[in-house]
Amino acid sequence: MTPWETGAPGVMALPSGRLVRGRGMSRPLPDGPLPEFGVYLLGRRPPEMAWDSTWVCWPDFRLPKDPAAARAALEEAWRRAEHQRVELACGGGRGRTGTALACLAVLDGVPPEEAVAYVRTHYHPRAVETPAQGRFVRSFG
């Protein structure tokens, strides 16, 4: 099973069928094909990747420094996920990554007030770690 097949660890299927991998940068890159696009949600610029990527300045346990830039990066990730292997990643793979995945779920048609529960069911039960992150998702719609 490749990292972008339904049921693979860290891969979340959106209602449209798009698959997006969430992961923590603190863990090794999973085996299998590399991403074709990545969005990295970190407080400081990540190292260069061997694939197309973008960085969103997003400190741990906080919100993106530039919400408009975060929205643009997530909209691009959602569009690319229709035909490409896309990953979202932060340090641990739960808070910021879960928040970003919930925003993708909103873009994919999940009602904003249901998006956190969707991600906790389909990605990780402790995704979206702070009340502010939950509010960010609800306001994303």
Q: How much helicity do the residues have?
A: 25-40%
Q: How many distinct helices?
A: 4
Query: Strand order of the main beta sheet, please?
Result: 1-2-5-3-4
Relative strand content: 15-25%
Which regions contain 5 or more consecutive residues with pLDDT less than 50? none
Sheet with the most strands, sense and barrel status: 5 strands, mixed
Radius of gyration: 13 Å
Distance between the termini: 33 Å
Number of strands: 5
Derived structural class: alpha/beta
What number is the mean pLDDT? 94
Helix and strand sequence: EEEEHEHHH
Description:
- The protein is of the alpha/beta class and 141 residues long.
- It is 34% helix and 18% strand.
- A 5-stranded mixed beta sheet has the order 1-2-5-3-4, with helices on one face.
- The N and C termini lie far apart (33 Å).
- The relative contact order is 0.19.
- The model has no long low-confidence stretch (mean pLDDT 94).
